[in-house]
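Incident log, support desk, overnight shift.

02:14 A customer reports that sequence design results differ from what the structure should imply. Their input is reproduced verbatim below. On-call engineer (initials T.W.) acknowledged and began investigating.
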């Protein structure tokens, strides 16, 4: 099992803290550390406002801008990761960040669940030829399939597809870990689980027993820290115990793993079904956290659309979705038929015919 410590933005804007977390994750047995590299304005329109997160209600755009990873950090974090013997992985959230990470020499790209439909970015990642790990929370099987095709068709030759339930935290009984071996059969490559549960024993060990190749777990130095991801992340001593349990299951013969899976009634509930889809826990976030083409600012009737006026963006409330990101290049240079408010999804009826 390849174990990823998801540091994400839990460095809270401090390079010193980020480096401390790399060391702590490595000492806890992580195979890789994973960060996020984004620009807030390339993720959301400016009017997202206050958002409820596991750590409380926050001004989300202000938080994102504060936790943007400076590009200058990248070589330092990569060097620190190499010094402690862990792979340096990063999730990009726009094409420019992909370019910067490729130049830095990132070991692998991690595609976050919300980026599964960001097809222009996936194509940019594929062109680098670097390994990719992709999470698939709040994604349909059709969306995952299209993303896999874009990555592999664009040059990606080393891809792991992770099942994920994007609820924070996820109850173990909502994991449906049987999806992992099912998706491995469908896509013919390694698979695993991006784990948002607070469980340190049953879920990681069951994943190992059913043949998972990768697990990603949110990591923090302390759950008392402020921030949206700290409250459900695991602390260093807990992370080390989790890895120890995984390694124990790995050492077992197949027959013992099969017996273990059947040994407790609750294990059956955690394994659940093998059908990949949008979980009931994800239905509220599915229409707003998915990327679509949205207005970066108010657009006037007759205005020519450009990269300054539209983008492939998310939103944090369930307002209307825009056109699929696959059509973004087609919209540039087209004229607006009517006004589109900042943050709104751009619809085909908003566009004048060519």
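02:41 Re-run completed on a clean worker. Output:
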């Amino acid at each position: 099992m390849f174990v990823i410590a998801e540091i994400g933005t839990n460095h809270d804007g401090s390079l010193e803290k980020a480096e401390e977390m790399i060391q702590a994750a490595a000492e806890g047995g992580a195979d890789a550390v994973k960060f996020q590299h984004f620009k807030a304005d390339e993720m959301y329109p400016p009017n997202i406002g206050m958002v409820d997160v596991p750590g409380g209600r926050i001004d989300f755009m202000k938080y994102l801008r504060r936790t943007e990873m400076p590009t200058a950090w990248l070589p330092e974090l990569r060097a620190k990761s190499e010094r402690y013997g862990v792979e340096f992985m990063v999730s990009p959230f726009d094409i420019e960040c992909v370019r910067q990470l490729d130049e830095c020499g990132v070991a692998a790209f991690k595609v976050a669940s919300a980026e599964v439909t960001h097809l222009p970015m996936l194509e940019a990642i594929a062109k680098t030829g670097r390994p990719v790990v992709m999470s698939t929370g709040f994604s349909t099987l059709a969306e995952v399939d299209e993303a896999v095709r874009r990555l592999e068709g664009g040059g990606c030759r080393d891809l792991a597809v992770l099942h994920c339930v994007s609820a924070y935290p996820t109850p173990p009984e909502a994991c449906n870990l049987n999806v992992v071996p099912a998706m491995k059969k469908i896509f013919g490559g390694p698979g695993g689980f991006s784990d948002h549960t607070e469980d340190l024993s049953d879920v990681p060990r069951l994943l190992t027993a059913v043949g998972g190749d990768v697990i990603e777990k949110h990591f923090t130095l302390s759950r008392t820290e402020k921030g949206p991801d700290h409250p459900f992340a695991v602390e260093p001593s807990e992370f080390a115990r989790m890895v120890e349990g995984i390694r124990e299951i790995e050492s077992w013969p197949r027959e013992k793993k099969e017996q273990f899976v059947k040994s407790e009634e609750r294990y059956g509930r955690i394994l659940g079904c093998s059908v990949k889809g949008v979980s009931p826990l994800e239905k509220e976030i599915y229409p707003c956290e998915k990327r679509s083409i949205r207005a970066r600012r108010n657009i006037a009737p007759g205005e020519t659309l450009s990269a300054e006026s539209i983008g492939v963006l998310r939103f944090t409330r369930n307002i209307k979705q825009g056109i699929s990101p696959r059509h973004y290049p087609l919209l540039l240079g087209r004229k607006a038929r009517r006004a589109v408010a900042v943050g709104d999804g751009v619809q085909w009826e908003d566009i004048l015919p060519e």
